[in-house]
Amino acid sequence: MKVYIGLIAGALLVGLSMSGCSNNDGRTEFKNLSKAPAADPSIDARALFVDKCMKCHGDKGTTHPLAEPFVIAGQPKELLIAKIEGYQALTFGGRLRGQMATSVQLLTPEEVNAVADYVSKLGTKTAVPSQDKW
Question: What's the CA gap between 126 and 132, in Å, rounded?
Fold first, then answer.
């Protein structure tokens, strides 16, 4: 019985943590993101990108995985970090949450920072929707 109560409590906490993350259209809002520290130059961000991201997002971060309406190239570094951390915590991501979580789950905070820095420099921001609503 204690196990079931623990599972129910855990599910409620996850649900509550996710409920405050979305606006009325179901998109997660990321506002007032803190400036990220500089990426560690000893981390091979390109290799991380190739290993974790390129299969779905392409070598330039412009491939539309499963017909999603946006690309990852050129998104602000802080926004990319927030999204990756959300995927890791399973609090962000809609229908691709599980697939993305599997890809990024084992990344350290330093690796997240490095790959986000790399992706933020891949493309232009003109192809990316407003950074405060996703």
Answer: 15
Q: Domain boundaries in the chain?
A: 63-121
Q: What CATH code is assigned to 63-121? A: 1.10.760.10
> pTM above the 0.85 mark?
no
Question: Helices marked H in the chain — which ranges?
Answer: 2-19, 45-52, 54-57, 77-89, 97-104, 109-120
| Structure tokens given for 27 | 């998109």
- Residue 97 three-state SS: helix
CA dihedral 26, 129, 117, 45 (to 10 degrees): 80
Q: What is the pLDDT of residues 44-67, one digit of tens each?
A: 999 999 999 998 888 889 887 665
Are 62 and 73 a contacting pair, CB within 8 Å?
yes
- Reference 34, options 93, 91, 87, 79; nearest CA is 79
